[in-house]
Amino acid sequence: MISYIIRRLFILPVILFGVSLLIFSMIMMLGPYQRLSTYITDPAQLKGVDDVEQLIAKYGLDDPWYEQYGRWISGVAQGDFGWSESAGAPVTTAIANRFPATIELALLSLIPVIFGGIILGVISAVHHNKLIDHIIRIFAVIGWSFPSFVFGLLVLMIFYGVLGWLPPGRLSNWATEIVRSAEFANYTGMYILDGLLNFNFAVVLDAIRHMIAPVITISILWWAFILRITRSNMLETLKKDYIRTARAKGLADNIVVYKHAVRNALIPVVTVAGQMILGLAGGLVIVESIFNIRGLGQFMATSAQQLDYPGVLGGALYFGLLLILINLFVDVSYAVIDPRIRLE
Predict the structure, then answer these.
(1) Element containing residue 298 per DSSP (H, E)
(2) Full domain range(s) for residue 45
(3) Which residues, in sequence order, are bridge partners of residue 119?
(4) Which positions, given as ranges, span the membrane (predicted)?
């Protein structure tokens, strides 16, 4: 397995090179005047037509494509993705500022989504066509059929609008003042973890309170999906000959189900979970917008709406890198779950 991971890491630069070429080809589809927005940080720089032409010549936006690619990839290697007009900051700064919020939400959602979906799916399959199976299946159909924006608005309306328990945003005003103060050290930008590291448990509890509603929204929707995949694979696995043989030998049902059947049924679930992790780590536009979380999803949506080309292209490169790393994680997970799989 170690040799496989090393080989994949060596291939990583080649894949990133291909991704960079693809993204650069998207850039070249834009005209020089549109690409000039990457370098403009102040509208005062564009006082007249002559200024525009001078800036195009200055940044070589009418040079051959290979010269432009060399300059662009050199800037990307140094973390220069251009200026994001929608964020009012360099693209790298905009992504770095929003990354902790998205990752915090993703990490808090992963555990209940994956383990909750798998556990419910296994229970449903083991008690096939019994009352608990029917209840779980109804729950799955309702959860998967519910549009995320409708469910998110319902959660916000009930738990904040009516009960006043779970407010939107990431922190209350008083907690925001503490986090921005000189006494509070921001190690990661994830308020729950930073609150623990600063031993400020009031901030931790406030951050958790603000995260509960979006985590519930994400969990209900993804639970239903993971549950259905797990149930269907478990039902198929429980019909295999080796499961019948294990039961014929007198093995306890718990050992047959959890030691033999579950591990074999999890391979498709891991594939789906990898795509789910990509979606969570890339930012959830609807959930972040409803609960006013300044994450990557909200940034990408705003960039697209305002035709902020540097922001969109910087986000695309981030997604490309994320996809490569998650695919590596999924491939390695196959061998961990099922020892019969050899990564050679």
Answers:
(1) helix 296-305
(2) 2-86
(3) none
(4) 9-30, 105-126, 138-163, 211-230, 265-291, 311-337
